[in-house]
């Protein structure tokens, strides 16, 4: 009898432990794979949106805590002209919101290596952000009366909307001013190949500035800058016959260019000579090198001028976003 009683008691305890494990296991897995407290709400609640975001301000050197949607408004105001079509402004709002949340999720309790106290900063390193007080200083009273309400409308009307790719929050919803007619695959400009950052046509950029811009520099100055930038390299002779574009990306930007004995990346030339983009052609006039550029910026993700052109053609902000970010869905 004692043996049977002990056996039944043991079975009862085992059953309780198994049931407890089944209940506890899912929460344990969430904890293991979330990595930190900031990511856990994303795994548990797809509608999660933070109330505030920490922003590092470069001018003051301080970190401010800003209401999240107010921050998004300040980014749209800093990144896109308020005169753009409303659907383009909405597209910018969703892209900015998605980028901001992805930074929060990835940084967790910390920040960015370049600004450890906050996941984002207020300049082009992250996204340009301007507070209402700053906008009042740099914009006109008329802009505050007419432009700012458009920014507020674009952000408020898309409140909580984010971009997802195959159920996961898009981490790099990059954007740029204008592409020159075609955007770039992410790996052709940066390191990673991201499935939603594919090269696509951007046909509605006729009103964009920075088209067919030319920069002329003497061959001697060109050669001097190259040799200064690569002091340990055997540069060789630099003249009109030893400067040649050797490869272009799918989006049309210069992937590699021969300069003397060197094989350089198009973006290296862009940075060295302050070109608007790496989408350039090279020609010669006498003893000078002439760069003719198309577009402005890195060319990856959404073209802002292209988005405005699409909006003028009647496309909605969701259609704009799904055009420039391949395979994404927009939802709250």
TrEMBL record:
UniProt-listed InterPro entries: Bact_Sporulation_Assoc, SpoIID/LytB, SpoIID/LytB_N, Spore_II_D_firmicutes
Do you know which Pfam families this protein is assigned to?
SpoIID
- Keywords, A to Z? Membrane, Transmembrane, Transmembrane helix
Q: What are the residue boundaries of the Sporulation stage II protein D amidase enhancer LytB N-terminal domain, all occurrences included?
A: 58-165
For this UniProt entry, which segments traverse the membrane? 12-33
One Gene Ontology cellular component term attached to this UniProt record is: outer membrane-bounded periplasmic space
Biological process terms in GO annotation: sporulation resulting in formation of a cellular spore
Q: Which NCBIfam families match?
A: SpoIID_LytB, spore_II_D
Name this protein carries in UniProt: Stage II sporulation protein D
Organism source for this protein? Sinanaerobacter chloroacetimidivorans
Q: What is the lineage of its organism?
A: Bacteria, Bacillati, Bacillota, Clostridia, Peptostreptococcales
